[in-house]
């Protein structure tokens, strides 16, 4: 099923890997990429459960758009261990206008395919998705 707005389909692997992250916690993060030639969103990188937040941010290209999902663990003020699944739309200022438009027009449809996202972030530079921002949005 292609997205009417941008014509982007979502590869089944995207949904399967997301379910593994959500249910089995097999991955710490997933980076998704739009393959323009195939007109679909595909999995670009999977982060190991032991990978740090820095490893996640380093896997996002400095000048290309991406979608990403990050499983963030934290401890509440009541000392409870919790986790939040973040959806991050990475759209750096230095990326091509066409790319930004395709990612922006496909985002909502893609996000709907990933059932269980708890927090959404839009970031155009690394400071907009720093660990402090993630922490503050998790509560």
TrEMBL record:
Keywords: Actin-binding
Pfam annotation, one family: Cofilin_ADF
Keyword Kinase: no
The keyword Lyase appears for this protein: no
SUPFAM superfamilies on file: Actin depolymerizing proteins
Family: Belongs to the actin-binding proteins ADF family.
Descriptive protein name: ADF-H domain-containing protein
Annotated organism of origin: Hibiscus sabdariffa
